[in-house]
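Researcher: Last one for today. Full complex below.
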Amino acid sequence: MTASGVAGDGGPPTTTAGPQGLDELCERFAAVCESAVDPLEISSALEFDGLTDQAARRLYGLPHVFALAREMYLRVPRRPAEPAAEPDPWRSDALRPALHGLLYGLPAVCYPAAAGLLTGPHVVRTLILALLASWSLSQALAYLGYRRLGQAGPGQSAMLMQAGMAAGLAGVAVVLAIGRLFVHASPPAFVFGFGLGAYMLGATVLLVLGADHLLLVGLAPGVLGAAAFLALGRPAGLAHAAWAAMAVTPLLVAGLAMKRARREARLGGTGRLIIAAELWGMLPSAGFGLVAAGLLAFPAAAGLPGHHAANTGAVLASLPLALSMGAAEWLLVWFRRRTQHLLRQTQSVTAFAIRARLALLAALAQYLLISAALIAIAVTIAEAARLVQPLWAVLPESGAYLALGGAMFLALVLQAFGIRGLPVAACAAALAFEVLWRGLGVPGQVASSTALLGVLAGYSAVHMGSAVRHAL
Amino acid sequence: MKIAMITEGTYPHGFGGVSVWCDQLVRGLPEHAFSLVAIAGSAADQVVWPLPGNVTSLSTITLWDSAARPARGFRSALPRRVAADLIDSLLDTSAAAQDRFADVLRELFEFVRRGNRGVVLATEATVRLLTDAWAGRWRAHSVPSTHDAVTALHLLDHFLRPLSHPPAQADVAHSVANGLGVLPALAAKWRYGTPVMVTEHGVYLREQYLQNRDGPYRWPVKALHLAFMRRLCTLGYHEATAITPGNIYNRRWEELLGADPARIRTVYNGVDPAHFPALEGEPEVPTISWLGRIDPIKDLETLLRSFAIVVRELPGARLRLFGSSPPGGEAYRQRCQALAASLGIDEAATFEGRVDNVRDAYAAGNIVVLSSVSEGFPYSLIEAMTCGRACVATNVGGVTEAVGDTGIVVPPRSPAPMAQACLALLRDSELRHRLGMAARTRALENFTVDAAISAFDEIYGFLGRHRPLPVAAALAQGMPEPQPGTPLRPEDAR
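Model: Here's the assembly. Have a good evening.
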């Protein structure tokens, strides 16, 4: 061997492979040629494989790699391989949303069990105040947690949640303390209200961090204690034991949440605690939590006949609607998977819009069916326990809550697609109507809930047909 | 003079040959002020190069951050006609469509300049335009879906972001790659009449084709994406007053895409001879040295296979591999180590990791081998040559231009010829030393950093005074410009 410049391109320049060699080359580069968008793509692949202009001339009798690639592009028909299917981000088993439904619904057993504790004037007002504060703060916290999770990972999210939970607890305490200046509720009601806040905030942190099982652990003492107490017919001797068991739950949930967040935060490195955009962004969430809590609690509170007994509104709002939120979560996932599939199945935005709207209609119908069934079951049981009037008598009120549930489902869908202003505004308007025209009673409630459902349904129908919104 | 230097994914946020080159150029011309415009992936990318004093500003354009996405419908929507023209110029493969693309890009620039924050193509209306334009196409193999349309337009939105950046004010807009980097240069040209210069180390468009071969997108998205890159690169060549490839080999692509040969000047990479004095002595054991990033493009598998042949003929020979894996690229090194083990050469072939002084890597071998399947004008080769080491290198990119007749060039992906070349040099110390000396002489004559820098200084001078480049060969470069064997025809690209 000599030290000449180019030692060869694979052999002495005597043979020309000709058309046969070209066939072989096409075969070897079949995958490239079949998926090429133009001849230059094949040129790139040939050069990357080490083929030079000299080799194109000598082996294939074509002037250069580009001409060779053009010949190959003409010979091999297009038949591109489909890319590997992307992982489905909405793959989720039905179990988790169902568990969430239970987690939202289970605490409801604590209210009747705690009835003996919650006596005296202004208890309801205190509890509503606690409900409003803890819903709005936990919605804001969930927004912050999920946003940070998506943008900076679990560690950073946990760091923010840790601080956010402490701030939220302080917020609930401050709201209740200020409330106490105006309404003199008994200390147990005050403590129960704070426990509600601690539970809500802790549960939010655990759900964002994906520690559903820990939430179940935390719920166990309170729910089991309350259920046993109720099942035994509320024996007075066990009341204190039941209340103590109930007090354990918020402490345990808040404690577990703090511990979990601290552990995860240690893995997250350092970063800004909070940025201005997050603070602005959480306002619609906090607002939504506030008005949603108001819509659920106000009719129940307004319709409360006495101090001790439960009423239809409280029964409907606390248990079936809370359980139905599990179904709502599952149907949201179903809807997203469905539209992702439709984006790939349709060839025009018009076709997509029509089918996406039908999918939303189907999701809403499924939600309403499930919720109606849950309400019917709850009312039947409550009627048997002589807690409420017969079903036919509470039908209008049940319808109002069903419509409210549907509206909440649509609000959930809209929020999942980043539309957060309108659901808050519409819910706030509905709540304002109910408060201002509370004299109308159940018919007013029916009117406002149905109107809310109608507005949100119309708005969703317009915006959920957008391919861009679904694809990005 | 004030130079706007535009980079994409390299200086000052990344390591690698192009970044080394940028740093050399900026430091080598302290009399010029450089304002850097760096196109980066996200705002989280860190500046990893200390910036010299003559860098007067650094503005970073992020391509993929969601935070940088312009607000929907801000001020005014993109006129429907402009969006339709853009789509049409990308789907139409005729030569006339290139001019329409140039016009529409200019219109997009003017749209942004009129106070709109950015171009948003991923809107319902534009998606409709694209799905309408696509209707009925490619029925036989890839029916485009609504999802493809949104994805493709969303990609274009990201690619067009550099156009929305305030144009740099400078005497020369120098893009250190074709492609997206020419967008800020074109903005400066359209706004202030700044002359544009494009340097290419690799061929941007070819890299785009290679990167998207097994990419995540369906064929219609890939086709639109690559059509955009191709139109953009072609426009870059048309609009540049000077095109400076890092080797002659790249010119083929440039001329094919319509670059005026009179505007092309090859300027080779250079090294500082003070950092690479001639090496004294050689290792006792016959040793092959390799230096680089451990990456599939370097084709270490061929090197290991050829070394297995060398060891059979020359028992006791060693192969020392210097360099580390890029972040996330550990799997390739493990694959190579497994291959070495299966060839029974895992004791003789050693992965040495990163070296602080690259000269030590060249000193470690009697000869230096480059086994890459794709290169522009590799630094490791001209550094080894400057040290006076004889080289065996694969015939890719500008390698033959670098090595000339002072080393052995072998076909890529071919273990046997590479092994024969290595054995020839390892066995014949007289030949090895003669070639090593010749390599050093050649490198000192042609591939010094001073030569590269003065060539750029000269080109900046012409461009800054708005004068065309003088007739070729007047620039201080030792290499003759080649006469292409067969003229390239534009239809070869279609």
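Chain A touches chain B through 56 residues (CB under 8 Å). Residues 349-384 of chain A form the longest helix (36 residues).
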